[in-house]
Design goal:
The N and C termini lie far apart (about 75 Å). A hairpin with a 4-residue loop joins strand 1 and strand 2. This protein has a 3-stranded antiparallel β-sheet, with helices on one face. It contains 9 helices and 3 strands, in the order H-H-H-H-H-H-H-E-E-E-H-H. The longest helix has 26 residues. With about 220 residues, the protein is of the alpha+beta class. The chain folds into 2 domains: about 120 residues, no CATH class; about 90 residues, Nuclear Transport Factor 2, Chain: A (Roll).
Length: about 220
């Protein structure tokens, strides 16, 4: 895929107008000499982006598009479909022909979310997590608070953990202990270190507020 590889794999984000224009020209010539090429693109995406999008789906899509439209055109479509859609369309529209822009718009409109998901899971660890959803509610019958955490994994599975707050805090402490056992500070990014520090300080602030409230004599 040549020059497009770094943009398609996320190592770089903006291919620049000259590369987009070159790829758009190649795609425009292909559409002129093979009018059914756009349907081949849609058929490739339809077949490769099935209901189960996994860690190899993006590579399958890339291989299919390479066979259908060639390096430059495939790179352009993958970059537009898996990145910032509005930005990509605007950049293509600025330098490419109307029919190339129309094809890019159609690919984004029909398969944009699926391409983004396939790219997000591309070569990731299947059991790694990607999203956490939380619910905190009161169990009135048993007079207790409950916390439910849903963890979405890269492979599409979901893990649910539910328990009382102190149980979740014990799990958190064990997870932190696991991170400590890694034993290599360089294994952690500054962003995640800062996130932990911020959440820890906020949690301590909550506990101090509760302690202060508990120590305040009741007003009679």
């Amino acid at each position: 895929m040549g020059e497009w590889t770094t943009y398609v794999t996320g190592q770089a984000t903006d291919p620049g107008a000259p590369l987009i224009e070159e790829a758009g020209g190649a795609l425009d010539a292909l559409l002129e000499h093979r009018p059914q090429a756009d349907q081949e693109v849609f058929e490739t995406l339809r077949k490769r982006l099935g209901p189960e999008i996994g860690i190899k789906t993006f590579e399958d899509v890339r291989a299919g598009l390479l066979a259908a439209v060639g390096d430059n055109a495939a790179g352009l479509l993958l970059w537009a479909g898996s990145g910032d859609h509005a930005d990509a369309i605007a950049k293509v529209e600025a330098v490419a022909s109307p029919r190339v822009t129309a094809l890019v718009r159609a690919v984004v409109g029909l398969y944009g979310p699926e391409l983004k998901l396939a790219y997000a899971r591309y070569n990731e660890i299947p059991d790694d997590w990607i999203r956490i959803n939380r619910e905190i509610y009161e169990d009135l019958l048993n007079d207790r608070l409950l916390v439910k955490v849903r963890i979405d994994k890269q492979n599409g599975e979901q893990v649910v953990i539910e328990g009382v707050p102190h149980s979740l805090l014990e799990l958190t402490a064990n997870m932190l202990r696991t991170c400590r056992m890694v034993g290599r500070p360089a294994a952690f990014t500054q962003r995640t270190i800062d996130m932990l520090a911020m959440e820890y300080e906020e949690f301590l602030r909550l506990l101090r507020a509760l302690e202060s409230t508990a120590e305040t004599p009741a007003v009679r």
